[in-house]
Amino acid sequence: MEAVPPRIRVAAYVIRLAAASPELLVFDHLDGRARRTTYVQLRLAGGPAGGWTHRVAGDGKDDGLRFACRFTPLPLATRLADHQDEFLDRIHP
After folding, report:
1. Which H helix or E strand runs over 25?
2. At the N or C end, where does the chain have fewer CB atoms within 10 A?
3. Residue 49: what pLDDT?
4. What is the pLDDT of residues 43-67, one digit of tens each?
């Protein structure tokens, strides 16, 4: 059996400073493939209220994937998929 190489990705912690508490941009998508992840932190002033759908456009195999996006208050009430919250304790909004 041939080994499937991990998918290389960058995960950005996008933090929005809201009135009540800092909020983290989260999205729902699982494909079950192994990943090698680099994390970065971004800060955002403002941004849309509520959620939205993002559709990937391009000529690669991710073309057409859809992500349900929203900001959620920190600290998180539940864990993020695929352990993507593993470095949130190092964030200082």
Report:
1. strand 22-28
2. N
3. 75
4. 777 777 788 888 889 888 878 888 8
Round to whole Å and give the CA distance between 51 and 32: 24
CA–CA dist 74, 83 (Å, integer): 16
Q: Which is nearest to 69 in space by CA: 4, 5, 16?
A: 16
Residue 30 has pLDDT above 70, yes or no: no
Burial class for 15, CB neighbours closer than 10 Å (0-12, 13-18, 19+): buried
Residues 45 and 57: their CA atoms lie apart, in Å, by: 25
Place of tokens 């992500």: 67
